[in-house]
Automatic annotation (TrEMBL):
Keywords: Disulfide bond, Glycoprotein, Immunoglobulin domain, Membrane, Signal, Transmembrane, Transmembrane helix. This is CD276 antigen-like isoform X1. GO terms for cellular component: membrane. SUPFAM superfamilies: Immunoglobulin (SSF48726).
């Protein structure tokens, strides 16, 4: 009897050691999330090993306090939690026996983006998960310069970069005219404004990297102005801005008259200034001579 139970304990200890020794904590990176959405940070012990009686620690080493969610002795240790995460975290407690220690985070905010660490101290396992949150659509601070009749790329990209091919990408003018629309995985030219028909394209092989730059061909002067690039997912939208301008010497191609007028005015002003200078000079010289003569006269009167 004693021997039998001792043997049983021994066997299970060996089995446990073997299983523990070979189980690794395997985490993966979730897709980027939009602010307000919920996300699961997926982590599990593989091959499966029950984490029911383990201390499960989710932390963010860059925060103080660093604890996001700690589970021990079958309960959540609320008092350790960083207050920014109050009422927003949970483990799938019914999944712990399968080694699933994934963390669910609700109502994600911009500041939730970062590196999360999951640790199981009792089996000396630890792994990290990167959480990315949709942040900004970046257009261009500097105006893009175009040449009449040429092609131009209006730059726009996501920060942080992520695949946008399943979302709606839209380029519009300042007045709201649709320049280019990409939705349901393809370009939608039906609602495109006539001004841009057949002249726009996106770089489809760049979109999985968050690049939604627009190529505009055969540019005309009426294309000048401000453009917005936007990304939409249901009700949520993020926007960037790009301004398209023409070089002053390029406009000569389109509006010769205004440039000619400017040049003429400049020449006239220059000529007038020159004449004025010469006139002033002459007057000065004459006055100078007069002054000299007057001094002489004064000297003469003094002498007399
Ligand atoms: C981790 O999980 C992924 C996806 O389930 C799998 O492809 C990979 O082999 C696993 N890694 C380990 C070390 O178990
Ligand atoms: C863990 O369980 C949850 C809830 O059932 C599930 O959504 C998630 O995909 C599981 N994660 C892993 C890594 O198995
Ligand atoms: C986006 O793609 C275009 C065309 O290939 C390229 O000129 C531009 O530099 C890219 N932008 C970014 C941010 O990668
Ligand atoms: C460019 O636009 C002008 C004016 O709209 C048009 O006459 C010309 O045919 C266009 N060129 C090309 C190559 O599409
Ligand atoms: C474009 O937007 C910038 C900044 O908002 C503004 O300064 C500029 O005047 C606008 N350009 C046009 C042509 O509307
Ligand atoms: C004018 O044209 C020249 C030659 O094409 C070019 O180098 C220059 O950048 C253009 N713009 C200005 C503002 O001079």
């Amino acid at each position: 009897m004693g021997l039998r139970s001792a043997l049983l304990v021994f066997t299970s200890a060996v089995v446990n050691a073997a299983v523990t020794g070979s189980s690794v904590l395997n985490c993966s990176t979730p897709n980027i999330v939009w602010p307000g959405d919920d996300v699961i940070l997926p982590c599990r012990l593989q091959p499966p090993l029950s984490a029911e009686s383990m201390r499960v620690e989710w932390t963010r080493p860059d925060l103080e306090p660093e604890f996001i969610h700690v589970h021990q002795d079958g309960r959540f240790l609320y008092e350790l939690q960083n207050p920014d995460y109050n009422y927003r975290t949970s483990l799938f407690v019914d999944q712990l026996p399968n080694g699933n220690v994934s963390l669910k985070l609700s109502r994600v905010t911009q500041s939730d983006a970062g590196t999360y660490r999951c640790s199981l101290p009792s089996v000396q396992q630890e792994a990290s998960v990167q959480l990315s949150v949709v942040s900004e659509v970046i257009g261009s601070d500097q105006a893009v310069r175009a040449v009449v009749g040429g092609d131009v790329i209006l730059p726009c990209h996501m920060k942080p970069p992520f695949d946008v091919t399943t979302l709606t990408v839209e380029w519009k003018t300042r007045n709201g005219a649709v320049v280019h629309k990409f939705t349901n995985g393809g370009d939608n030219t039906d609602i495109q404004n006539d001004q841009f028909k057949g002249r726009t394209s996106l770089f489809h092989d760049e979109m999985h990297k968050g690049n939604i730059s627009l190529k505009l061909t055969n540019v005309t002067l009426t294309d000048a102005g401000n453009y917005t690039c936007s990304l939409r997912k249901q009700q949520q939208e993020k926007k960037g801005n790009v301004e398209l301008v023409f070089d002053s010497n390029q406009t000569i191609v389109g509006s010769t008259s205004s440039t000619t007028t400017t040049v003429t005015i400049v020449i006239i002003i220059a000529v007038v200034l020159l004449i004025a200078c010469v006139a002033v000079c002459l007057i000065r010289r004459r006055q100078g001579n007069c002054g000299g003569r007057r001094q002489h006269e004064q000297g003469d009167t003094l002498r007399t």
